[in-house]
């Protein structure tokens, strides 16, 4: 970094980096505040924390908030070239590796819930009970832990004991000693997202069949379910592209550092921040019950402030 700043135009690059860091902090704070507000709304009504789709929605909010916070730590550490011991980096990376996958897996579970609600309405109450939802959340976290377990297992086998006490820039690449580890990581993520994509397409096709055959309120509900599945598909697509970003960035790093930095910044905004702000829009604003609860909560807060 110092070498780049000593070159002509280095000061402008340093200013650009500072501006981008400030922009990221503002966006992260905004998204965290929105998520926190929606989490508070979730606990205001019993119908929310006893209904499967709202419980899963709360899981995505918590997952996205934790991921935003931890990934922001990664951004700050790397931008200011702060080195930490590898064992501490492992702890931070475990959280990021698990929760980068929790949201897309939860979105898949939410898609399945919509499929059951629309295509199997008589069994919805049985299959989507609160007890089964808790079990589903545990399964989601188990499935999301698979890439983390594989990546760290290959690292533990390859690394010497002295390496854990070394100071390094904290990133997932620290755990990759060999090229086959990167290929293995990519293969696991691609397989996961292929399975999730197949589930999403299957649910979309089945809901579309019901929507064509339905009439009146059923047709309206089915079309709304289709739109929700499409939104989930768009989120999954952004999460899938996110997995390709490290490989693109690694290639650009060998060509041009400035281009590498700009692309990495854009990737973080588009494929880390944007997918994490879509959930509040899909379920927080499009859902009538949740939107009304949000509106009443904000109105009550304003009235209380004016009274004081």
From TrEMBL:
Identification of the protein by name: Mu-type opioid receptor-like
Gene Ontology cellular component terms for the protein in this record: membrane
Membrane-spanning residues: 20-43, 55-78, 84-112, 133-157, 187-208, 229-253, 265-285
PROSITE patterns per record: G_PROTEIN_RECEP_F1_2
Cited InterPro entries: GPCR1_Superfamily_Member (IPR052921), GPCR_Rhodpsn (IPR000276), GPCR_Rhodpsn_7TM (IPR017452)
Domain G-protein coupled receptors family 1 profile: 34-283
Alphabetized UniProt keyword annotations: Membrane, Transmembrane, Transmembrane helix
Annotated localization: Membrane
